[in-house]
TrEMBL record:
<feature type="active site" description="Acyl-ester intermediate">
    <location>
        <position position="229"/>
    </location>
</feature>
<feature type="active site" description="Charge relay system">
    <location>
        <position position="205"/>
    </location>
</feature>
<dbReference type="InterPro" id="IPR023631">
    <property type="entry name" value="Amidase_dom"/>
</dbReference>
<feature type="domain" description="Amidase">
    <location>
        <begin position="66"/>
        <end position="360"/>
    </location>
</feature>
<dbReference type="InterPro" id="IPR036928">
    <property type="entry name" value="AS_sf"/>
</dbReference>
<keyword id="KW-0378">Hydrolase</keyword>
<dbReference type="Pfam" id="PF01425">
    <property type="entry name" value="Amidase"/>
</dbReference>
<feature type="active site" description="Charge relay system">
    <location>
        <position position="121"/>
    </location>
</feature>
<protein>
    <recommendedName>
        <fullName>Amidase domain-containing protein</fullName>
    </recommendedName>
</protein>
<comment type="similarity">
    <text>Belongs to the amidase family.</text>
</comment>
<dbReference type="GO" id="GO:0016787">
    <property type="term" value="F:hydrolase activity"/>
</dbReference>
Length: 502
């Protein structure tokens, strides 16, 4: 069943009056969560993963110390934002002790992710933890089947891979019932809370994981994506994300909900940790156990970045002609455009076919079986509520990557085309700068409807991200190009350019 108070150690339980106070704050990221923590927990959980690995390899930190700190922080995150459907702190600490014993005996780390705690959307099986996927009818069962010998004993292949690299799961995060929704809500935990502004959505369906990453409740996390379910929540909460193409990360042993193939995405506080985790999963050669994974080891040509002589051309889409980005999103695109121009990187206007056409195709693919699995699971919860042909709409122009804003309409097409994407936080909304345009003329009726939802005060302080798109199964090169974009934006800020008025 959902993670409850009894699964949180007594010394990590917040006083009821403190929980009530925190839940009354519009924003719990930043000062609120940080001030709840002791110095050691704050220090460890705010240290980047590469440094944590270095500290553990030198014996300056133990895996138990690292895992304890993140478990404590995750416990606080859950108590003030309702993010964990399953808690595995005891299991995690046991695995951390095994990591420390291995290091003491062999004088080396188990693998690239030794001692790093992670969380994942409750769409994966972890031995020792139940899986509900947000369905009440699945509580106490294995995917709705009572008495199954697999209950709490089965493990998804991805989890096995991560454990073999030394990573340690500490819990499973909340998700949207049925997994395909723009919000994160289920009848077990209710609505997940956006830690930057509880009046705004976390996005969905991997909103619980994105919120956990925004609060630094683990070093990295996983969600699933068939139409922006990783990219959008990550953008709403200001964390980095990778949505790979199908066939790169194994979904074997995961809970599959709809007909359209879902991909597993990674979320975290930096590009570096996303790349490290992606590279680590490939190092376990998942294609030897899952035929759905392409036999494609990590392409080391991009470890040192792209060749300096390489001519880079980035496609650039500011508006899809259907829905105009809200003012802070448009400003984020201008920031990136200015940064790329200062870095002398070519930008090419990119004008793809209609996003509405892609959205229609996406809907027919995702609902191709009538969402039978969803309805069966909902019936268990006492709710009554074709062979598919994938269509390639267009082939690429002469671009290395494409820069676009990050929103639902802009993300859906990537799943139809199976393009990988990386979400990069750029700025935050500012009510004094990102004012509504009094001369705005809508492009479509949908455009008018969407722009009417914009309230500068309501969105003030919200993270704003952009999306970088690469060619199919070219994630390694995409990481290298994302680093170029990140460096360009960082250099723009260092140069003293006023990004609020770009």
């Amino acid at each position: 069943m959902a993670a409850d108070k009894e699964k949180i150690p007594k010394h990590w339980r917040l006083k009821p009056e403190l929980v009530k106070w925190a839940k009354g704050q519009p924003k719990v990221s930043g000062e609120v969560i940080e001030n709840l923590l002791d110095d050691e927990t704050r220090f460890i959980t705010n240290t980047n993963s590469r440094e944590l690995i270095d500290q553990m390899s030198q014996g300056k930190l133990t895996a138990v110390q690292v895992v304890s700190a993140f478990c404590k922080r995750a416990a606080y995150c859950h108590q003030i934002c309702d993010l964990l459907l399953e808690i595995g702190f005891d299991l995690a600490l046991s695995q951390a002790r095994e990591c420390d014993e291995y290091f003491k005996k062999h004088g080396k780390l188990i693998g690239e992710l030794h001692g790093l705690p992670f969380t994942m959307k409750d769409q994966f099986h972890i031995e020792g933890m139940p899986t509900s996927a947000g369905y009440i009818g699945w509580i106490g069962t294995f995917e709705g089947k009572s008495g199954s010998e697999k209950y709490m004993k089965y493990e998804s292949l991805l989890v096995e891979q991560l454990k073999s690299s030394g990573a340690i799961p500490i819990g499973k995060t909340t998700l949207a019932t049925g997994t395909w929704s723009a919000i994160t809500n289920n009848n077990i935990l209710g609505y997940a809370v956006n830690p930057h502004n509880r009046h705004l959505s976390t996005g969905g369906s991997s909103g619980g994981e994105a919120a956990m990453q925004a609060l630094r409740g683990s070093c990295f996390g996983f969600g699933t994506d068939i139409g922006g379910s990783v990219s959008i929540p990550a953008a709403y909460q200001g964390v980095y994300s990778l949505k790979p193409s199908t066939g790169r990360i194994s979904f074997q042993g995961g809970v599959k909900i709809v007909a359209m193939p879902a991909v597993i995405g990674i979320m975290g506080p930096s590009l570096d940790i996303l790349q490290s985790v992606f590279k680590s999963t490939l190092s376990t050669m998942p294609w030897t156990r899952d035929q759905a994974v392409t036999r494609m080891p990590w392409q080391g040509l991009c470890d040192g970045g792209l060749p300096k002589r390489a001519h880079l051309a980035f496609g650039f889409l500011e508006n899809d002609g259907i829905v105009t980005p809200h003012p802070p999103v448009a400003r984020a695109m201008r920031i990136v455009k200015k940064a790329m121009e200062m870095a002398d990187i070519e930008l090419v206007g990119w004008y793809p076919p209609s996003n509405s056409e892609v959205a229609n195709i996406h809907g027919s693919l995702a609902r191709g079986d009538g969402c039978l699995d969803v309805w069966e699971a909902l019936e268990l919860s006492e709710f009554k509520s074709n062979t598919l042909v994938r269509k390639q709409i267009y082939h690429g122009f002469c671009w290395n990557a494409i820069l676009i804003s990050l929103g639902s309409a802009y993300a859906t097409s990537l799943n139809v085309l199976d393009y990988p994407s990386i979400g990069i936080p750029i700025t935050v909304a500012d009510q004094h700068i990102d004012t509504a345009d009094p001369n705005f003329k809508p492009l479509t009726s949908k455009d008018a409807e969407v722009m009417q939802t914009y309230d500068p005060g309501e969105f003030h302080g919200s993270p704003i991200s952009i999306q970088l798109i690469g060619r199919r199964q070219d994630e390694e090169r995409l990481f290298a190009m994302a680093k170029i974009v990140q460096d360009a934006v960082d250099n723009l800020k260092l140069a003293g350019v006023d990004i609020l008025h770009c």
